[in-house]
């Protein structure tokens, strides 16, 4: 049989850091955009054994863990390795090796090297850094934001959704909005093969690969990993729910195949809401705002109860919600305030319950709206005089174009919204027992991989209020 091409075209990744271990990921795809649904990634159907190594140093002179794992056609020859027995709060390097159909038996093919980092132990009070990204629509441009994020090597990266967009190429793309062609399938994703190829296209991007190889990721999804504006088992456009559930199951399977997750699909479900602990400093509660959604609940009853009980029981200095959607009230002048919005404004009853529970050091991290925002969370949004009980940092998109927004009117109508910036970028956070500091990074343009980055604003949090740090003494706006 002819030898296959280089299999690590989609890079490597790690995620879900615990004090004692992480998940490692790769997928064998010698022809990542192969058009045959029976040969995703250009792989033959048979299983392939993959070796993995974890080392204390980048040159792999001190390998501390190693093993093998079978990559099978059922999961598009992706592998996830649960590494355990590592030291907490420690940097490690990892790589994969294969022989078999790729090379002679005594000269394995080696993957790129990734850097990862374990979480600290439960009693740790050491500071940490995190990145926050979302909304990386491929057609809309390059990923200088991810390139700069990779260079910062945060302890952990949270992705809050719209990792891919399922859309096909528009018949008449708006000027400046189709910067990169959707190769490997330019139609809307509706099948497992189409979703697989869409993830593969994104993962071939060198800057997305660099960001995965630089730090462990903890991702959650929004709607475009499946379909625009879907809710639970409903497609959102009134079409057949049974057909949509098959599509959703395929989309979840493709998500699983491309992410360093601990969870695995079970029937039609993939449970990705979870807690990510950084000692006594921060508890990150990563939420799923799509899978269990209904007209009356954003999260579903089980996730709501899980979240409230975790928030009541946390011993951490900061309780951080990590999820896609705008949490603070946001009145948009000219829009019917009673209209159901794709944000927490559409589910005020549970938001009120959550705020009433007064979580310790409440911080919400979100995305979705494709601009940077910072907000104070009020005990009662209806009363401008009520105290701030927490803050929200909305991270802008990596590439996705923002909607038209009358920003001055929105800021005027919502005095608790303290900051807006309409450029693409990401958020960097620095968290300690004394401070929660967030910088809204912006790139000049997504027309070039090399576009420079700068900081639009840096905020701290004091008693539930935002304090501008980069221009001390000035008001937050
Ligand atoms: Fe988005």
TrEMBL record:
Occurrences of domain Phospholipase D N-terminal (ranges): 10-118
UniProt cross-references to Gene3D superfamilies, sorted A to Z: PhoD-like phosphatase, Purple acid phosphatase-like, N-terminal
Pfam families: PhoD, PhoD_N
PhoD-like phosphatase metallophosphatase domain ranges (all copies): 130-436
InterPro entries: Metallo-depent_PP-like, PhoD-like_MPP, PhoD-like_sf, PhoD_N, Phospholipid_Metab_Enz
CDD domains assigned to the protein according to its UniProt record, in alphabetical order: MPP_PhoD
PANTHER family registered for this protein in UniProt: ALKALINE PHOSPHATASE FAMILY PROTEIN (AFU_ORTHOLOGUE AFUA_5G03860), PHOSPHATASE, PUTATIVE (AFU_ORTHOLOGUE AFUA_6G08710)-RELATED
Protein name in UniProt: Alkaline phosphatase D
Annotated source species: Sinosporangium siamense
């Amino acid at each position: 049989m002819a030898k296959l091409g280089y299999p690590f075209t989609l890079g490597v990744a790690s995620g879900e850091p615990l004090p004692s271990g992480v998940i490692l990921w790769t997928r064998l795809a010698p022809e990542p955009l192969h058009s045959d649904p029976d040969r995703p990634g250009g792989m033959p159907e048979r299983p392939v054994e993959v070796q993995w190594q974890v080392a204390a140093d980048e040159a792999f002179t001190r390998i501390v863990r190693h093993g093998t794992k079978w990559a099978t056609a059922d999961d598009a020859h992706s592998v996830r390795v649960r590494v355990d027995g590592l030291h907490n709060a420690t940097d490690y390097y990892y790589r994969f090796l294969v022989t078999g159909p790729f090379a002679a038996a005594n000269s394995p093919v080696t993957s790129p090297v990734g850097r990862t980092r374990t979480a600290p132990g439960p009693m740790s009070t050491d500071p940490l850094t995190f990145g926050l990204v979302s909304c990386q629509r491929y057609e809309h441009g390059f990923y200088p934001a991810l390139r700069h994020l990779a260079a910062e090597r945060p302890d952990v990266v949270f992705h809050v959704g719209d990792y891919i967009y399922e859309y096909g190429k528009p018949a008449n793309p708006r000027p400046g909005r189709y910067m990169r062609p959707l190769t490997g399938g330019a139609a809307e994703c509706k099948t497992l093969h189409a979703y697989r190829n869409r993830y593969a296209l994104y993962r071939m991007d060198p800057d997305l690969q660099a960001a995965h190889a630089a730090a462990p990721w903890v991702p959650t999804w929004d709607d475009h990993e499946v379909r625009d504006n879907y809710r639970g088992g409903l497609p959102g456009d009134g079409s057949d729910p049974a057909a949509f559930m098959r599509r959703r199951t395929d989309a979840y399977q493709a998500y699983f195949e491309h992410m360093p997750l601990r969870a695995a699909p079970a029937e039609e479900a993939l449970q990705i809401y979870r807690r990510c602990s950084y000692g006594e400093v921060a508890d990150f509660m990563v939420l799923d705002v799509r899978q269990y959604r209904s007209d009356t609940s954003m999260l579903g009853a089980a996730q709501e109860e899980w979240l409230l009980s975790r928030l009541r029981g946390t011993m951490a200095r900061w309780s951080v919600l990590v999820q896609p959607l705008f949490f603070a009230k946001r009145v948009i002048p000219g829009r019917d305030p009673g209209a159901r919005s794709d944000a927490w404004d559409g589910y005020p009853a549970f938001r009120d319950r959550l705020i009433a529970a007064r979580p310790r050091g409440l911080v919400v991290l979100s995305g979705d709206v494709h601009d940077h925002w910072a907000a104070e969370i009020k005990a009662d949004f209806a009363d401008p005089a009520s105290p701030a009980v927490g803050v929200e940092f909305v991270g802008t998109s990596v590439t996705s174009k923002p909607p038209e927004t009358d920003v001055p009117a929105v800021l005027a109508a919502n005095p608790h919204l303290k900051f807006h910036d309409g450029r693409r970028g990401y958020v960097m956070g620095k968290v300690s027992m004394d401070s929660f500091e967030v910088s809204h990074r912006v790139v000049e343009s997504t027309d070039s991989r090399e576009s420079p980055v700068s900081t639009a604003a840096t905020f701290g949090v004091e008693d539930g209020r935002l304090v501008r740090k980069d221009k001390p003494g000035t008001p937050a706006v």
